[in-house]
Amino acid sequence: MAPLVTVEDLHVDFDTPSGRVAAVRGISFTVERGECVAVVGESGSGKSVTARTLVGLAGPDARVRAARLDLAGEDVRTYRPRDWRRVRGRLAGLVLQDALVSLDPLRTVGAEIGEVLTTHGIVGRTERAGRVAHLLDLVHLPEPQRRARQYPHQLSGGLRQRALIASGIAGEPALLIADEPTTALDVTVQAQILRLLAERRAAGVSLLLISHDLAVVAQVADRVLVMRDGRIVEHGPTDRLLRAPEHPYTRQLLAAVPSATSRGRRLAGAAPGGAARAALPARPEVRADDTVLDVGGLTKRYGEHTVVHDVSFTIARGETLGLVGESGSGKSTVARIVAGLLDADAGTVTFEQTPWAAVPERTRHPLRRRLQLISQDPLSSFDPRYSVGRVVAENLDPDVGRADRRHHVVDLLRRVGLGADLLDRHPRQLSGGQRQRVAIARAIAPRPSLIICDEPVSALDVSVQAQVLDLLAELRAADGTALLFISHDLGVVHHLSDRVLVMHDGTVVEQGPVGDVFTYPRHDYTRSLLDALPTLVAAGRPQEERP
Amino acid sequence: MTVTVGPPLTDAPARIFVDQTEPVVRRRFRPRPGLLVAGAYLVLLVVAAAWPAALAPGDPLAADPLAVLSPPGAGHWFGTDHLGRDVLTRVVHGAGHSLTIGVAATAIAVTGGVLLGLLAGLTHRVADEALSRTFDALSAFPMLLLALLFIAIAGTGTGSLIVAIGIATLPHHARVVRGQTLLVRRSGFVEQAVTFGQSRSRLVLRHVLPNVVGPVPVLAVIGLGEAVLAAAGLSFLGMGPQPPSPEWGAMLSEGRNYLHVAWWISILPGLAVTATVVSLTVVGRHWQARFDGRRR
Amino acid sequence: MSPPPVRAVARRLGAGLVVLWVAATAAYLALLAAPGDTVDNIVGDGADTPQIRAEIIADWGLDRPAVVQYLDYLERLGGGDLGRSYLLQRPVTEIIGEQLAPTLTLAVAAAGLGVSLALLIAVATAGDRRPWLRRVSSGAELLLVSTPSFLIGLLLLSVLSFRFGLFPVSGDSGLRALVLPAVTLALPIAGLLTQVLRDGIDKALDEPFVLTARSRGARERTVLVRHALRHAVLPAVSLAGWVFGIVIGGTVIVEQVFGRPGLGQVTLSAVTTRDMPVVLAVVTLSAAGYVVVNTTADLAYLLVDPRLRRS
Lengths: 547, 296, 311
Known about the structure:
The complex is a heterotrimer. Chain A is α/β, with parallel strands linked by helices. Chain A is 33% helix and 25% strand. Chain A contains 20 helices and 21 strands. Helices cover 76% and strands 1% of the residues of chain C. By secondary structure, chain C is mostly helical. The chains are: A alpha/beta, B mainly alpha, C mainly alpha. Chains B and C meet through helix 4, helix 5, helix 9 and helix 11 of B and helix 1, helix 6, helix 7, helix 11 and helix 12 of C.
């Protein structure tokens, strides 16, 4: 039988105000019936455009050319809108990331799923509610009848992603295209969604899985295509590709993933020959007797809801404390309290032997510059009127003379690997990685003793993330700065931290040296986090588990 | 008219997306005929207001009993009115009235709006609550009726018209400025600046004020269009400069009795109002788009 | 379903009441703070006899302490007593009551027409299906929003009434006399609402949930009406108060242009003769109307957007 999807020499160009831009430049692949193929690449690689082209939804500005573009044996290149509508949802379903915006927020989950059934005339009006409930049951939504009447915002992230998948499979399509289906989700939820996708595949549905994360697709895919700049640079069975990558880019991608084994090693710039990663400069000496930050019994309530409950920890000079937790665990609230931007309801914070919480801002003032903050979204932390130079200069010592300021800023930019040519550029004109470097340059300007990093790399591509993590490690070694490193990504925390604090529902469930906690977790929650973690090593494991 | 009102959306949870922030490409220059025409008209208008004789040397009040109600043609491009006055000359001389009223009223509205809006946005919560409820309540009065109320108290005339329109449009500006102030105050970069150890007054001066006041000229241009429109309306009702003064709205009002025989007396000054407001809106919107582009 | 959002509704009703109270107070203060003697101001251009002056002082309680005067005023207002026109020697409620019907008819007709036009044009021109139609439409909207309503009225009159004699020039006789005034008032509203609605639809069309809907095989019309339009209606609903203000302000001008009887004419003559009790009553009443419309719109929000129902 012919493959379900056959693509030969596919090109997709976009007409933009500044000319034609090539998004996909001549790719070929097939998806067999019952197979799971993953397309992996970083932003701008053309992976999402490829996925959308398969259902004719690349957008009105897209120009699609291909030597062959077959869906279930039909040539779709000559399809008119009406033909596409017949195929969409029925032959190929599409699931996007973040169901909060990918399901219509003004309609109930049931109405959204029912739309597929009505559009394709799959069941009559009387049977529709029953069918919707059946579909929700299929994706393991508890109480399907009640959930069908709820709106997306009333469901948790995991449940609504399940509902989105239910809408994708409602028309019983032979092919399910999932574009970053787990990207905004917590790691435990991500594992459940991946299990669900594997289950659909076991039921006979072909999967085309689009992701930026090799570790995620490794869990379910039979074959992996690695895309870069609109081309497929390497493809092959998942196992082979992960164990013996051939293309330098694939190797670079694999090397960039931070984990336990990458500790003390560089993530970026892995040698093309597959040589061992270069070593990072030695960690700063941790002086356990010299405490920079002491937090005791921190509690914060919003109304009746306690978001942080009795959190205590210390950070020694030069130490990196990782703070991990899923969304809603209270980790960012802790960061804001420690940064002196939010008042706690109870508890103490002592920074550099000085009371820091529950004191007037004037008391904090002399020490403010010793504690700096780097956030997830650097752009919003820059005054929109400021150039790169002004952004960094703002945090220079006020005593630095006017004449020396430029010189200092250039110095700082050089330390974070940026050239002086960026001085007068606007941050908007920079890439995400460059922006985060500017934010880091600004944070190290006053030579702080502690930097709070709140999800500093979670908005970045993995190779850019690798560079930024390397940079942080270098700067930490050079300046002996302590870090409070907050992340949802256990790999990143394991790579960078000395000690780790695991938060769940506002409380610290476990803390200790990172190796101990992640190797011999004592708390059930930590264990469940680690179990859910998709690792590249686990890729060879058979996918037999069922919920 | 910019109406930036929207539903207060529920807090979206922090999302983690793959980096899709492409560097911004500088847009290539594209000639915009509409913008050019609008700009040219506004220049012409300013000339007409400052030095009307340069465009129309005649006397706007000079009546010619021999050329009453003559249609637009070679001698009188815009025709003549019921007293034989040249309509084009009157339209040109009327520009000064309309622009003066519009600019002065907008100045009152914007200055007052910015000051009160900043005050509300920067003070304590209780004071803010009181001020913004007052803005809300004043916005409840239809603009035209608020202006009419003021005129009923203070009497008709140019000065009274200016103050009336200024006061009637002030609450809108105050609300916009207050909203913008709160937005900037709560923005990430102001919070970040706290960690640089900057004092509150320094924060306000260096970050809040410039980012709030920056867009105000754009607001003012678009507000000027509304003020000109309101002035024409009130003058049409006889609340502004009195005949024989060549104010556009007043001219319309005078000419409407002759509408069935001489449409040009009222329609042509009316089109001058429309062209003014369209030009101001086109220029204002373009400016706003560029401003937003620079900020976002 | 979710429990009825009692708290959310109560909060909006409360906010409406507060605005109403502040507005009534503002109108009252405007009269007291006006330069000159308050009694003189209330007399206006009417007959100024000692008898009438005494009547005014008694009615407004001007001889009593300020707080008592104010509370008394609020009490009268709350009881629906809008005072008395000393110029016309009639209760204001009567004067307004007589003229309310034609104005309300006009306002409702204009608002209905404007909103329907805006919905039709916005749906027809949103998205990128017909770029030329969209350009034409946005040009027309800009013109309509920028043109004084009396000019629109005079243009319609000179073409449709004087040239072709299709509609009566003035008066309030039957439906045909309503057409031109309603159209005059509706066009600028349609112009602005179309812009807001189309912007909203365009924005919604870029959202991921629209992509999801399309990926189900939904027709373009379904995507537009069932998904995008609902999102576009939200910002438009918040303009309801603005539309009310434009319509009420507009009736003053349009009634003048078309020689229609109504509240606008009452207002205008009251302003000209400085009949303050009538002016104050009209202004306060329109603020009350605005608050009612706006609060209704706020409540409609809860109906359209389930995300706002939790308080």
